[in-house]
Amino acid sequence: MTSIKTGIMGYPQKPGHILFYNSPKTLLFSVVFPTFRLLSHLINLPPPIYRHPSYYPKSSWHFVDFGALGIYKWNGTAWSQLSSTNPENMVTSGSTIYVDFGALGIYKWNGAAWSQLSSTNPENIVASNSTLYVDFGASYGLYKWDGASWTQLSSTKPENMVTTGSTLYVDFGTFGIYKWNGSSWTQLTGSNPVLMVVLN
């Protein structure tokens, strides 16, 4: 990492919006943080000469993947490390965070402790209310975790999944788009989409 900037091509970003570069023109990723100074302590950067007001209520929790540094939680006041392992994906539902740790499987953080939900490496995970939906690839298909047990929803591997409220939308490739309402499937189109997004 060679530079941190607060704007792109001369356009200012929101206060606390930090852009990470590994060269002058290559953006690695951007993260919104309440203050610059807290971040500098985590990744050993020189302290900035100014600080911005917090974006978030002090009661909020925010989880950040710092790559090789692992997962950290911001509680509105201070940072704490939840794991030194670099996750492949993270999703949240309420106060619960579900993490794909790759070959280590899927884990759940309930605010106090980690518990393993599966030792299988997923290809994608999304959460809806208290339900976790997992794409386990072509060998296993699509499964649902309801907080107590796993249920297979489809033996077909999804190409993409998005949720809104309690509804799951799945791109099954050449089979089209299907909606899962919590109890049954409905086909919305037989066309193969390129991309799916939802507005909550």
Describe this entry's structure for a reader.
The protein folds into 2 domains: 1-62, no CATH class; 89-200, 6 Propeller (Neuraminidase). It has one helix at residues 36-43, and strands spanning 3-5, 7-8, 11-12, 17-23, 26-32, 62-65, 71-74, 79-83, 89-93, 96-100, 106-109, 114-118, 124-128, 131-135, 142-145, 150-154, 160-164, 167-171, 177-180, 185-189. The protein has 200 residues and is mainly β. Strand 2 and strand 3 form a beta hairpin. The chain has a 4-stranded antiparallel sheet, with no helix packed on it.
In short:
The chain is mainly beta and 200 residues long. It has one helix and 20 strands. Residues 1-59 have low confidence and may be disordered.
Widest β-sheet, arrangement of strands: 9-10-11-12
Total helical segments: 1
Q: How many whole angstroms does the radius of gyration measure?
A: 19 Å
CATH superfamily of the largest domain: TolB, C-terminal domain
CATH architecture descriptor name of the largest domain: 6 Propeller
What order do the helices and strands come in, and which of them pair?
Elements: E1 3-5, E2 7-8, E3 11-12, E4 17-23, E5 26-32, H1 36-43, E6 62-65, E7 71-74, E8 79-83, E9 89-93, E10 96-100, E11 106-109, E12 114-118, E13 124-128, E14 131-135, E15 142-145, E16 150-154, E17 160-164, E18 167-171, E19 177-180, E20 185-189
Antiparallel strand pairs: 1-4, 2-3, 4-5, 6-7, 7-8, 9-10, 10-11, 11-12, 13-14, 14-15, 15-16, 17-18, 18-19, 19-20
